[in-house]
Amino acid sequence: MRVVISAGGTGGHIYPALAIINKIKEKEPDSEFLYIGTHNRMEKDIVPKYNIPFKTIEIYGFNRKKLMSNFKTIKAFIKSYYESKKMIKNFKPDIVIGVGGYVTGPVIYAANKLGIKTFIHEQNSIPGKANLLLSHYVDKIGVSFKSSNKYFPEYKTIFTGNPCSEDATKKEAINKKSLGLDSDKKLVLVVMGSLGSSKINDFLIKTISLFNNKNYEILFVTGKDSYQKISKNKFPKNVKVVPYVEEMTRIMKKTDVMVSRAGASTLSEIIALNVPTILIPSPYVANNHQYKNAVDLFDKKAALMIEEKDLQGDILVRTIDKLIDNETLTNELKVALNDFKVEKSATKIYDTIRTLIDRK
Prior knowledge:
2 domains; globular; Rossmann fold; alpha/beta; six-stranded parallel β-sheet; 16% strand
């Protein structure tokens, strides 16, 4: 299989794209790939590390506040469209896949105009603008949440789940002792993404003494940028502070309660591993999509939720305590998470892609 794949901007788009690539490689080891990303976003640093051929286009998102800057955006889109068309013609793919981010716009549109089969994947419950636009030009659309179906043409749309979830189930659980944790105590994992959240980090530092002498341990993942500053503070003995944990799903398999943002890939791992979670959605993302992701789970009683604006006093420790020793509540959350689960999501996406190619 020859595949052009495009995704960019955030890990929430890039890692699902990599999960799809891994599944295709597993099924068809001789497959060849070309990854098209933005020239100035994180994919340019991440993707080449996996020895995946990588090319960039200069592309920008539309700016609602600075309308004049959109002339530059339109000009970049037109140029990127022709560049993408040339790359695709030269590579001769069997299929072109978009996994989110505005970089996918010119790539998928070019593939459509060249008559090549196309597939896009939406990770969030509320679709991004790029995927909403591209839905008119693609052959199939995979969604991570059943609630997303209403935004796309029914005949094109498949509930695939997020491909990161399949990767999560395959990982081996970590030995808690390797992180200096007590294997006999319950664990609360607090993590706000690879970069962390300065506001939530500050809140935790102010209230961390409230966790003193609790019958559980906390693994506080600060994010790489904040660790040096935060580690200088004094923490209770049952709180372990680290900058980052490689292969986070390995420790998630040993987690009793998680406190997390509501990014799509993280939610897919929470769902896949049935982790009882307190979600604190980031209010700083496009279209407030993390809040909408979190509400999707919260409304179905599959997670608890605290909005960042409500983080005051002892609300976090009270919510953790409410969950940590309440087996009935944690079991209810786990049962509700099953409604969001898709077994072998990456495989389902591969099968969809393979069928599209075979129908040529």
